[in-house]
Design goal:
Macrolide_Exporter_MacB; transmembrane; cell membrane; two-stranded antiparallel ribbon; ABC3_permease_C; 14 strands; elongated; MacB_PCD
């Protein structure tokens, strides 16, 4: 009951000066808004990336040109400093690498080399630029691509360099709008291709399926005069460990590269490791930068409370004179400071969630998850902040002598 009465007195004293109180609350609100919004965006961006990597399949290994210099570690084992020494080199990956791995390793269930170049695609009346992509039929299942109409090209069509093409959703819309595209002709590199399929829209951060056109790897290689794949995707089904599968793939491909491994073999765990490493670094930087704003907000609370103590000196003296204990005075001012901090935190959390929803409307790929632990930590921090910056004004109030306070004008 005594604490409740102290709380009522605290609230009455604070809102006797509403402008000053709201300014102090605003400082904490802005600080909370900045740090929580940034951390929420980073968190949602990370889980979106990880979710999309996992949706592609944890039993997938990607061969990419480049390697970590002077290190025996794989990408999944590397720390941030090692990742910074990852050297990108000119690709030496080939169609033969994919064929050899699939042929010699029974545990490999799919191999899809990817060769790509930007080129023009000429339709009946329109011409657009697209990513001209050569691969194999295994590619479709690896990325769980779905057809809106038609079919994907076959292994036989790939080997025979059949002039057939599958369109990404954006390219189909640009070339044919709402008209039927199956069976129509498009010209690429002077070759007339027959449209045999259209993919459904597919979103994956860092990879655009909708602005691509797909045909067999040998066709792209010969028509675009390209020799090497940008990367090769492998899927596997095996009881062996991931490292064992990775070593087997490397040993099969090594003879095709002059006995050296000038490529990296990245699995889902490696991609997730990279994402988490970079996200943790950016989060630490964001907390360090935006955390300064909390310090400024806390100083604002302390200034407000010091002014409050000065203006309520006579009130403090009267309370002491009628029997208020030292802890009643201390509790009163700590409650006031904590109330300002917590109210600002709550308003900042609400604003952060609103901004996150707004951002999601522009970038649907980002989710709107608001981690409960982030809310709890933020509220706990605001309580601690209020107490820390309320101690000095509270101690000043305790030192006021009743006789001097009663004489104060």
């Amino acid at each position: 009951m005594r604490s409740l009465r102290t709380l009522v007195i605290s609230m009455r004293g604070l809102w006797s000066y509403p402008t000053r109180t709201w300014l102090a609350v605003l400082g904490i609100t802005i600080s909370t808004l900045l740090i929580v919004f940034l951390l929420s965006v980073l968190y949602n961006f990370k889980i979106s990336l990880v979710g999309q990597v996992e949706s592609v399949g944890v039993q997938q290994i990607i061969a990419a040109p480049g390697k970590i210099l002077n290190s025996g570690k794989t990408i999944s084992q590397a720390n941030l400093s090692s990742l910074l020494s990852f050297a990108s080199v000119t690709s030496t990956l080939t169609y033969k690498d994919a064929e050899d791995v699939k042929e010699k390793l029974p545990e490999i269930t799919g191999a899809a080399p990817q060769m790509e170049t930007v080129t023009t695609v000429q339709g009946i009346s329109k011409t657009v630029e697209a990513m001209y992509t050569g691969t194999t039929p295994d590619y479709m299942n690896m990325f769980t691509l779905q057809l809106e109409e038609g079919r994907f090209f076959t292994e036989e069509e790939t080997k025979q360099e059949a002039p057939v093409i599958v369109l990404g959703q954006t390219i189909r819309q640009l070339l044919f709008e709402n008209e039927n595209s199956l069976g129509e002709k498009v010209k690429i590199k002077g070759i007339d291709f027959t449209v045999i399929g259209v993919l459904k829209e597919k979103q994956l951060i860092g990879f655009n399926f909708d602005e691509r056109v797909y045909t067999g790897y040998p066709m792209v290689s010969n028509s675009a005069n390209l020799k090497n794949a940008s990367m090769i995707f492998f899927t596997f089904q095996s009881m062996d460990s991931l490292d064992t599968i990775r070593d087997k793939i490397g040993q099969v491909m090594k003879p095709n590269h002059g006995g050296i491994i000038d490529f990296g073999l990245l699995a889902a765990d490696g991609a997730i490791h990279i994402i988490n490493t970079i996200a943790d670094l950016v989060t630490a930087i964001a907390v360090g930068i935006t955390g300064v704003s909390f310090l400024v907000g806390g100083i604002g609370i302390m200034n407000v409370m010091l002014l409050t103590v000065k203006e309520r000196t006579r009130e403090i003296g009267i309370r002491k004179a009628v029997g208020a204990r030292w802890w009643d005075i201390l509790l009163q001012f700590l409650m006031e400071a904590t109330y300002i901090s917590v109210l600002g935190c709550v308003l900042g959390l609400a604003g952060s969630y609103g901004l996150l929803r707004l951002l999601h409307s522009f970038f649907p790929v980002l989710s709107t998850k608001f981690p409960l632990e982030m809310i709890l930590w933020c509220l706990l921090f605001s309580v601690v902040l209020g107490i820390l910056f309320g101690i000095s004004p509270a101690i000043k109030a305790l030192r006021i002598k009743p006789i001097d306070a009663l004489r104060y004008e």
